[in-house]
Design a protein that fits this description.
It contains ten helices and ten strands. By secondary structure, it is of the alpha/beta class. The strands form two sheets. Strands 3, 4, 5, 6, 7, 8, 9 and 10 form an eight-stranded mixed sheet that branches.
Length: 275
């Protein structure tokens, strides 16, 4: 199969618990990044959203670049040695733990998602260094307590030492009625002093017409997709102290090279530290 101008091996059969007739955000994102773990229904929605936002693939790529930069800087500059990554998605190399463990092989990472396809690939691809550890929990962000009390998390992370909590392009899948601010606050409250929260979130602040069309496309396919304003996204950080450069367009967060147009990717991104 040819996808985005390159040959991609055919996907393996879906696990029996996966409904290939219902689109899923992780598989749509995988398609935008050029992956093979998606189905016709995912590709149809993904292409419709590209019609709405022609730069959608670039936006997905900018989110991945943010993960790489944040993981690198949080280990090298902020002293973080353990991560809790919620809403992991289908693994895309390099993964967060690979970036972090290049700097300190002792880094530990717990990934969390609730898609059976993510589970299959996480077990196969998220291989840790011998000095560190990489684990996967099948759980839902809507139930933070189930994540925080998981035995595997307790065996992997030390919640008395700073943790890097990462929520990358996941809060957009929660409606306001789910009160995502309260869910994130519960996670923040469980983190010790010195922990950091890194997140990205789509917004209509930069191009309302395109984003509203994309949201309508997702909604029409039975999915939840919420674009939020900068002030709404800032609330997810609570009273934690924003690290430089603050809550900025995703391409402008500590870029390796300045972006020509940071607002070309319709996401806000930021990192904050718990006092």
């Amino acid at each position: 199969m040819t996808q985005h101008g390159r040959v991609v091996p055919p996907a393996e059969p879906a696990p029996p618990e996966v409904d290939i007739n219902v689109p899923h955000s992780a598989r749509i994102y995988d398609y935008w990044l050029g992956g093979k773990d998606n189905f016709a229904v995912d590709r149809a929605v993904a292409e419709a959203m590209i019609t709405a936002i022609p730069g959608m693939r670039r936006m997905a790529g900018e989110n991945r670049k943010f993960v790489h930069r944040a993981a690198r800087d949080l280990v090298a500059r902020e002293g973080i040695r353990q991560f809790l990554d919620i809403g992991t998605g289908i693994p895309t190399r390099p993964n967060l733990h690979e970036i972090a463990q290049r700097i300190d092989p002792r880094t530990r990472v717990v990934y969390v998602d609730n898609d059976p396809i993510v589970l299959v690939h996480a077990r196969a691809l998220m291989i840790s260094t011998e000095e560190g550890r990489s684990e996967y929990i099948s759980a839902d962000l809507r139930r933070p307590r189930s994540i925080l009390t998981d035995e595997l998390l307790a065996a992997t992370l030390d919640l008395t030492s700073p943790v890097g909590l990462t929520l990358i392009a996941i809060l957009m899948l929660l409606a306001d009625a789910d009160d995502p601010w309260a869910l994130v606050a519960e996670l923040r409250d469980a983190m010790p002093s010195g922990s950091v929260l890194a997140l990205t979130h789509p917004t209509a602040d930069f191009n309302p017409a395109q984003v509203h069309q994309a949201v309508a496309t997702a909604t029409g396919a039975g999915m939840t997709l919420v674009a939020r304003t900068q002030s709404e996204i800032r609330r997810f950080f609570g009273d934690w102290e924003m690290l430089e450069p603050g809550l900025v367009p995703v391409s402008a967060w500590r870029p390796d090279q300045p972006a020509e147009d940071p607002q070309a990717a319709y996401y806000w991104a930021g990192v904050a530290r718990k006092p």
